[in-house]
Every structure is written in structure tokens, then in C-alpha cells.
Specification:
Length: 136
């Protein structure tokens, strides 16, 4: 009888340890997911609304051509009412990152404009929050 109770206690303690380990992994995974989402790492910019599909190819070409081409693309896009946030904000933040080494004053100005018009519930806001220390 004593051996049976000992075996039962060992099984209960082992099962309890397994459940604690399982819960710990779940909490750790949830925390990593929250950190990634708060940093904007899980956002796919091409899926953000606000840019007509006809302009996707022009955007890719402008991004590959460099900051000057991206600036021309942004200036041209601002004349069209179909190009709007949150995609426009994301593209402008890409431009801010590209010019921050050569024209930090312009980068801060554009960042401030994007930050002012972006709501806290926007999918772009985590990226703005992550960039804020650099560009403010």
C-alpha cells in the first residue's frame, strides 16, 4: 500500500510539473507575440489599405530607385484622393528611414506630420511608437 501511495504521489507531482511547464511556455509565447505586434513586426505593408493596386508596381520601382524616386512618388500620390492612410503613412515612414542619414531635419518633419495625423488605433501606430525615440 505504501508503494502504491508513493507511485501515486510521484505521478501527481510529475503531472503537476508538466502542467506548470506547459503553462509557462504558453505565457512565454503569448508575451513574444504581444511584443512583436506592439513593435509592428507582424504587419505586412502591402496588405494595408489606402493604395490602389495599380500603383503597387510604381511603388516597388520607386523604392528600388532610392529616396529621390520615392519622394517623387509620394508627391505624385498625394494628389490622388484614393491614396490615403494607413498605407500612405507607412510609405512616408519608409521614406523617413531612407533620408534620415542625409537629411535628418526633413526626416523629423515628415515623421512629425505622420505622427500627428495617425490615430493610436491605426495599424501603423506601433511603428510610429518604435520610431519615436529616434525622430523626436
Amino acid at each position: 500500500m505504501r508503494a502504491l501511495i508513493t507511485i501515486l504521489i510521484v505521478l501527481v507531482v510529475g503531472f503537476g510539473a508538466y502542467k506548470v511547464w506547459e503553462y509557462w511556455n504558453e505565457v512565454k509565447d503569448r508575451r513574444l507575440t504581444e511584443e512583436k505586434s506592439s513593435a509592428g513586426a507582424d504587419i505586412q505593408p502591402e496588405r494595408l489599405p489606402g493604395l490602389p493596386y495599380q500603383l503597387e508596381a510604381k511603388l516597388r520601382d520607386a523604392q528600388q530607385a532610392g529616396p529621390a524616386a520615392l519622394k517623387r512618388f509620394l508627391e505624385a500620390c498625394k494628389r490622388y484622393p484614393s491614396v490615403k492612410d494607413p498605407r500612405l503613412a507607412w510609405i512616408e515612414l519608409d521614406y523617413v528611414v531612407l533620408i534620415s542619414g542625409t537629411d535628418p531635419v526633413e526626416a523629423k518633419k515628415i515623421f512629425w506630420n505622420v505622427k500627428q495625423r495617425t490615430a493610436t488605433d491605426s495599424p501603423v501606430y506601433p511603428r510610429i511608437r518604435a520610431m519615436a525615440k529616434t525622430y523626436e
